[in-house]
Amino acid sequence: MRLGILISGRGSNFEAIASTIARRRLDAEIAIVISNRSNAAGLEIARERGIPVRVIPSQGLDREAYDRLLVDELRTHEVELVCLAGFMRLLSAHFVRAFPDRVLNIHPSLLPAFPGLDAQRQALDHGVRITGCTVHFVDEFLDSGPILIQSAVPVLDTDTVETLSARILAQEHAIYPKAVQYLVEGRVTIEGRRVLIREDEPQ
């Protein structure tokens, strides 16, 4: 399966996916990495790995006009699945319709709790004992698409935003490649808001 990765910053989840592919534990190919910021650190990581990159600046463009440029670039590279990896833009309905049930995002909370920015700080401020991360399908609303996979992370009494974020990030790196593999293997069915994952056939 040909992947298109969208980033705005360091792209650590992109790197986790790329590393899993390199270890032959994920049967996919990253066709293109696109960023809306020319200084995104993840672009250099992609270049070092020999992955094609493209910068499409978003400044001065409305959401749909920008997304049309993204869709054109992704289609040029025959992308089958789009993975958001710290891409700091809301996608338009046009983009979502272009890749129906083929856009994934990862978010540092157990959605639907704590959507949007600063999810780790939100968790600490609310005093929850457990938070985590979520891989979900993307719709045109903020962090609201059907949930594919989640991983729980306990919140410690001594946690700061930084320490909690680091432990959540480690789980993100574990579950995002796994979520992609479920789709690669054709094991995922969406029924309304429920995502069903077919178990492996018994040996």
Give a written overview of the molecule.
Helix 1 (12-22) links the parallel strand 1 and strand 2 (29-35). This protein has a domain at 2-106 and 134-144 and 175-197: Rossmann fold (3-Layer(aba) Sandwich), CATH 3.40.50.170. It has 203 residues and is α/β, with parallel strands linked by helices. The chain has helices at 12-22, 41-48, 63-76, 93-98, 119-126, 161-184, and strands at residues 2-7, 29-35, 53-55, 81-84, 103-107, 130-137, 147-154, 188-191, 194-197. It has 6 helices and 9 strands, in the order βαβαβαβαβαββαββ.
Strand order, sheet with most strands:
3-2-1-4-5-6-7
CATH H level, superfamily name of the domain at 2-106 and 134-144 and 175-197: Formyl transferase, N-terminal domain
Q: What is the CA-CA span between the terminal residues?
A: 25 Å
Q: Which architecture of the domain at 2-106 and 134-144 and 175-197 would the CATH scheme give at its second level?
A: 3-Layer(aba) Sandwich
Q: Approximately what portion of the residues adopt beta-strand conformation?
A: 15-25%
By CATH reckoning, the class of the domain at 2-106 and 134-144 and 175-197 would read Alpha Beta
Largest sheet: 7 strands, mixed
Task: Round the mean pLDDT to the nearest integer and report it.
Answer: 96
